[in-house]
Amino acid sequence: MEKQKRPVEKFDWTLSFILLLFCIISCLAIYSAQTTEQYNENYFLRQIIYYFIGAVIVAVVMYFDSYQYRKLSWYLYGFGLLLLGALIVAPESIAPIRNGAKSWFVLPGLGSVQPSEFMKIFLILALSSIIASHHEKYITKELKTDFVLFIKLGITTLPPLGLIIVQDLGTALVIMAIFFGLLLVSGISWKIIIPILTAGAALAATVIYMVLWIPEVLEKYLGIDTYQFNRIYSWLDPESFQGDWGYHLHKSLQAIGSGLLTGKGFGERVVYIPESHTDFIFSVIGEEYGFAGASIVIGLFFILIYHLTKTALDTKDPFNTYICAGVICMITFHVFQNVGMTIQVLPITGIPLPFISYGGSSLMGNMFAMGLIFSIRYHHKTYMFGSDNN
Q1: Which parts of the chain span the membrane according to its record (predicted)?
Q2: Residue 355's closest CA among 87, 6, 86, 15?
Q3: How distant, in Å, are the alpha carbons of 137, 215, 233, 234 from that of 229?
Q4: Global model pTM greater than 0.85
Q5: 181, 184, 369, 388 - which has most CB atoms within 10 Å?
């Protein structure tokens, strides 16, 4: 017999409180960042508007349950591919080239939209559907069926990865993180996973070696311009490149380092970082609130990941579990990469800090993902007798 709960009891108040804290931190940091002379627009007000829009997205997404999302997953996946393809062939009047790539649609009166931010969520739904359906069809695990599942996951991931990698390397890395994360939790035998991970690591190590020591080979045989490696060179030696490619990293290290333990205080920044309200918002937090403030922000992300993990364990629907796993992989990679690039642990890739960096598409995509978690919690059914939940 199913326990009847009121709507207010089914709502995920914990997640909503976490998002509220992120909203406050984001708006305060952006407000402080835009006080420098480079800004002519009120990004603080825009971010508040984006959060309101994100709240509406959460409400709409939460309305539908997992059964409906499972049916819609392939339609959303196809829609996402259509947008990515249209972005490539669209004229520059509606898809301008920014920083050497066409990643945005510019819609008059509506602003900019980055399709890849939503494609990440659509891919999570599609891969989750594939894994859940595969295990329903093949009850008994075999090496052959596991390999079939790997092929299906790979074939589904390659089209969006191919379309995104020519537009935005950072988002392409997120797509790969989602793929490998869901691969690890899909139940595929380690006899398949270990060789794949080993081959991937070997390939990455080879490419890095060639970039560092013999870049002319990549330029000659693959047609890759060596200037594209400047971000890696500036990451390893920001002092030598502080006038150009290493400028942001050099300034970011100065800002975070000067914040010391407790920071300089709200609005008391002295280190100038261009466009700090976007990808380098963590540098603003580090300078103004020091190690203590930065640790609180990172701790809040840990709390979010813990809550998502608990949601994945509470639900008995495998499809919901895989959705949670995909969202966890996406958020974790974003945080690790963004914070890492501001403190020289990782190269700069232009990946925003979830829920905190300024950006409508990024925030709305993340709120879409949170809407799925709200939906899982809201439509979760608990029964009086027995421990099975649907």
Answers
A1: 12-31, 43-64, 76-98, 172-189, 196-214, 289-307, 319-336, 356-376
A2: 15
A3: 46, 8, 6, 9
A4: yes
A5: 369
